[in-house]
Amino acid sequence: MREEIITSGRLNHLIDPQLNIWHWHIPLYLFLGGLAAGILFFAALFTILGKEKEYPTAVKIAPFLTPFLLMVGLVALFLDLNHKLYFWRLYTTIRLESPMSWGAWTLMVVTPLSIIWCALNIKSIFPNWDWKYKWVWDMEKFFRKNLITISWIMLLFSLILGVYTGILFSAFNARPLWNTSILGPLFLTSGLSTGAAAIILMSKNSHERHTLARIDLMLIGIELFLIVHMFMGFLASTQVHIEAATLFLGGTYTTPFWLFVVTLGLVTPALLEVLELKGFKMPVFIAPVLVIFGGLMFRFIIAYAGQASRWLY
Amino acid sequence: MRYAMAVDTKKCVGCSDCVVACQTENNVPIGFCRDWIVEVTDGTYPQLEIEIRSERCNQCANSPCVRCCPTGASHYSEGGVVLVTPHKCIGCGACIASCPYDARFPHPDGYVDKCTFCLHNRVKKGLDPACVSVCPTKCMYFGDLDDPNSPVSKVLKNRKHKTLIPEAGTNPHLYFLI
Questions:
Q1: For residue B102, what is the nearest residue in chain A, using CA coordinates?
Q2: Contact A21/B99, CB-based, under 8 Å?
Q3: To which H or E segment does residue B51 belong?
Q4: Which structural domain range is residue A271 located in?
Q5: How many domains does chain A have?
Q6: How far is A25 from chain B (nearest CA, A)?
Q7: How far is A73 from chain B (nearest CA, A)?
Q8: Is some CB atom of chain B closer than 8 A to the CB atom of A308?
Q9: Which of A59, A214, B70, B125 is the most exposed place for a label (fewest CB within 10 A)?
Q10: Cβ contact (<8 Å) for A12 and B105?
C-alpha cells in the first residue's frame, strides 16, 4: 500500500484546514436571485404572449415580491463582503471575465426593472393609487406604451440573472465540484422552478395554478436530467472531479443532497403535482413549498460542498 | 521581464525561517502566513520518500484570481507579479475561492492579502525577497526569467524541476527543483 502524508505549516483563518470563505450569504443570495429571476421571467413571458388576463397572478401580483427578494439578496451580498466600505468599486468598472462583475451589473438592470414592473401594476393591489405628480404619470405612460419592449428586456435579463447564479460557481476551476458548465443551466432551471412554485402559492385561479404546475413539472424533469448528467460528467472526468462527485455519492453531503434536494425538493413535489393534475384533492401549498425549500437547500449544499472539493497535490 | 522563484526540495529542511522572515518583513497579521512549509511523505515503510517544499503564491501567468476579480483589484504588476490593490478590493472572496493553491487569505482589515514576491519593499531596491535572502540552506533562487544570467534562470537550466498542478492551467512561476 502506498501512503501519502502531507503536513502543512499553514493555518490561515477561513482557508485551513478547509476553505470556508463563503457562508450563508452567498447561497441565500443565489436562491433569492434565482427565485426573482423565475417570477420575472414568467411575468414577462405571459405579457409577451398577451395572456395577462389568463395568468393575472404571474403578471400582476407575484412580481411585487421581486424587489424585496432582490434587496434582501443585495443586503446578504453586502454583508458577505469583508471590505464593506469599498463595495462601490463594483460599479466603477465592468470586467467581462469576472462573473461577479457582470452579475453585479445585471442586478443593477433587473432591480429597477422589477420596480418599474410593480409600479405599472400597482393598481392591481391598491385600486385607488394616485401618482400625484404629473411627471410620474408621464413616466408611467411612457413605460406602459413600451410594455412589450420592457417585457423583452426583462425576459432576457431574468434569464441572464438566473444563469449567472450558476456561472458564478462554475467559473472556479480551483473547486472541481463547481467547475462544471452544467451548473449554469441547472441553477437557471431551479430558479424558474422556484419562481413557478411561488406563483402557484399565490394564485387563486385554478387554471393558472394547473398550467404553472405543468410547467413546474417539466422544469423538475429537466433538473433531474441535468443532475444525472452532472454526475455522469464528473464520474467520466479526472480524479479530482470523481472525488468531488464522491462528496454526494457516499461522502459528507450524500444524505442532505439526496434527501433534501432530490427526494423532498424534486421527486416528492413532482409526484404531488402529477396527482393533483390527475384530480386528486390535496392541500395545494405542499408541492410548491417543497420546491422552494429544495431550491434553497440546493444552493446551500452546492456552496458548502464546493468549498470542500479541491485539487490534490 | 518575468520574475520567478525556484525552491530546491533537496536542500530545504523545512525550518520555516522563510515563513517568519516574510511575516516580519511584510507585517503579516498574527496567525496568518503568506508562505508556508509542506512536507509530503510518500511510499510504504521502510521505503519512504520525503519532499519538503516552501510554498507561496505561484504568481501564475494565467491567474484565476485576476480573472475573477470583479473590481480589478487583483492585477498583474511589474514582472508578472500578481498584486492586490487594497483600496480597490471589496473583500468578496472570489479570488480566494478561485486559487487552486489556497495562497490568498482575508486580511483582518478586510482586503485580500497574499505573497507579493516582496516586489515594492525589496525587489525594486535590488534585494532578494525576504524568504530567499534569509534561507539558511540557500535553497531558494529568485530573479528574472528573461535574463539568462539570473540565479533562477541558471538553476532551472541545470536542474530537473516541476510546478504545482500545471493541469489547472494556471501557468505558475514558482518552480520546485526535484
A1: A15
A2: no
A3: strand B47-55
A4: 25-308
A5: 1
A6: 11
A7: 14
A8: no
A9: B125
A10: yes
Whether the predicted pLDDT of A199 surpasses 70: yes
Tell me, what DSSP letter sits at residue B128?
Answer: P
Give the containing element (helix H, strand E) for B154: helix B151-158
Task: Find chain A residues with C-beta within 8 A of B31's C-beta.
Answer: 11-13
Closest-CA distance, A137 to chain B, in angstroms, reads 38
Centroid of chain to Cα A177: 18
Domain-located, residue A2 = no
CATH code of residue A241: 1.20.1630.10
pLDDT tens digits for range A245-301? 999 999 999 999 999 999 999 999 999 999 988 888 888 899 999 999 999 999 999
In a domain, A180, yes or no: yes
Instruction: Compute the nearest-CA separation of A109 from chain B (Å).
Output: 17
Contact between A174 and B100 using a beta-carbon 8 Å cutoff: yes
B159 touches A: beta carbon within 8 Å? no
Strand partners, B112: B106
A313 pLDDT higher than 80: no
Place of cell 541558471: B154
Q: What percent of chain B has pLDDT over 70?
A: 100
Class of domain B3-61+115-177: alpha beta
Distance CA A249, CA A228 (A): 12
User: Can you tell me the ipTM of this complex?
Assistant: 0.91
Is B76 near chain A, with CB under 8 Å?
no
The residue behind cell 440573472 is A161
User: pLDDT grade, residue A2 (50/70/90)?
Assistant: low
Q: Do A307 and B97 touch (CB under 8 A)?
A: yes
Chain A contact set for B109 (CB, 8 A): 83
